[in-house]
């Protein structure tokens, strides 16, 4: 794996937390409060739809000890609107991030060096205008940061990257099995 | 048949306003008492209240914080959901301390706040505050209603969430337009949310593992907390204790789960808990925690806490497992369900010599601390002797409410708790000012019971205006002010750990009896020991609310003490000479 196991010397490690929830206003805030209260930095956070209708997925990347992450995950799962939360080490998930670079088109035209760089890094060009060109790289953080280093000499006008998106390697679909039991209806009232 | 059902159902539907729907939702949940304070953004709801005042009694406090603590006191003694209403802005922000208190002490509450009209949200309108944002970290759940059609379902969810599982406070913010607007109202209680599992089903395998540990233990020790009370599992707990023969100690909020005089009750845990209860934690071979969360005030230094023992943790909230103390066996679920299964699996035992060890340690504490507190030979009055006389007069048959500080610890240590749900105190948050309004709420919730408030002169003055509320309801709260003219607990720490540098702990107090009388409440002051017993009798005999002030000696301190960062084995019985 390009990123290794992410373990560093104080027992901290990169974990990908995924939480599945109802789609309610304010839930993002309730989740981030759990981290801020414990003084834990969120490396990245992505909110998206999931494979299940009406269920939203939070993907949160943190660097901390297993013990802390376990506690945070049980606090997330305790939130009323969260159905289930999991945490995974890097080798338990397949994950990607996306980075966009905006560089002056001028540099593209001066020789074939830039083009070679883009090919080498398996990046692609999204848009070319007389003033600028937008390059996209999808991969691990280390990969797009390597590309960034090389692009710096062409004067990068803008650089941005997404949070991590991840799916588990496990062949057991823990959450969809859980949801089958939890049911299709999110709230049940008397005499329904 | 189907057609018939449809018409019956339709009969339950009425066309009404959002404000009226709030009242009907409360009635639908069986609410008969609400504590609150009106204001601009909640006026339609207060107007609708007038149409239902045959079913709902509203108690007008003198401050929104007073409404919160009153609702907490009410909820704690009745086991019902406490309900609070307040207006937007300052009305809502004044609730926050009480909400935080209810959150950490797991008290079921539904707080209803008015909000500016939804068209004005985010415009810094008059008395607009983001109360959803502010209350988020201290509520179990909260929700902003912007459309009246949401009212019945959200109210039903609010009550279901507040009372189920590990209870807690819920806040519902209602935009003013949704209070005025009309809807087709029909009330159905919420029975399930798919994203929320209030309690897991007992895992028999785990319980079996726990039973094996218990049956093989030589020195087992039970620690019990409020979970027993919240689960209404006092009888199940007692059956477990009596069959296992295991000595049991309590956290402050667990106080009433087992009568204090029960032969297996070995006392209070924690910073000012009993000597034996603390030191035996580091001598047992099995720790069985029942509905408690290993608060730092209970454990002292975690690195030196019960390291020799295996740990069984019976707890409803999965997030509490392994939070502070690692459990060898975690039994997740409602103790009302898990305890009887466990009791069925264990052998009947009596741990006579192990219990004798506790009682031997008790003798040391009695000689160095308790006898001096309860039967002082010095001139000044002690808090302990006031509680001793209360025990003699009430035989432990009273609901006792405290504020926060020295008097709180003394009351917990010495009052002979006999009945269920008879102790109301701010445990986790330690909120000064909690006592007076909470005692009022407790009396409203249990009018047939004697309710005695023990309060210090510092905390009393934080919510003293609630004397006005008590005068208005004439709820017969018996108020015992332990007046030492100091912020006593802080002063004690200054004496012990800050070279007697009494920074900002002296209070120049008012004439409390005049204040009480000004609020229309009869009062009496005791300065000398010979007057004390009769004064307490007189207070208890009085039919209405009563205010008894007792002058307490300044340097009456609380011992034993596990100081901050110390291990539970390092209990101090008296100050260093």
Task: Walk me through the structure.
Chain A is an alpha+beta fold and 192 residues long. Chain A folds into two domains: 13-93 and 169-180, ACT domain (Alpha-Beta Plaits); 95-165, Alpha-Beta Plaits (2-Layer Sandwich), CATH 3.30.70.1150. Helix content of chain A is 30%, strand content 38%. Chain A contains six helices and ten strands, in the order βαββαββααββαββαβ. In chain A, strands 5, 6, 7, 8 and 9 form a five-stranded antiparallel beta sheet that branches. The longest helix of chain A is centred in the middle third of the chain and has 13 residues, at 66-78. Chain A is elongated. The mean pLDDT of chain A is 91. Chain B is built from 24 helices and 21 strands. Chain B has three domains: 14-185, Thiamin diphosphate (ThDP)-binding fold, Pyr/PP domains (Rossmann fold, 3-Layer(aba) Sandwich); 204-357, Rossmann fold; 375-551, 3-Layer(aba) Sandwich (Rossmann fold). A six-stranded parallel beta sheet of chain B has the order 3-2-4-5-7-6, sandwiched between helices. Chain B has 577 residues and is of the alpha/beta class. Chain B is globular, with a radius of gyration of 25 Å. In chain B, helix 12 (234-244) runs parallel beside helix 15. Chain B starts with a helix and ends in a 26-residue tail after the last strand. The chains are: A alpha+beta (192), B alpha/beta (577). The interface between A and B is medium-sized, with 29 and 27 residues.
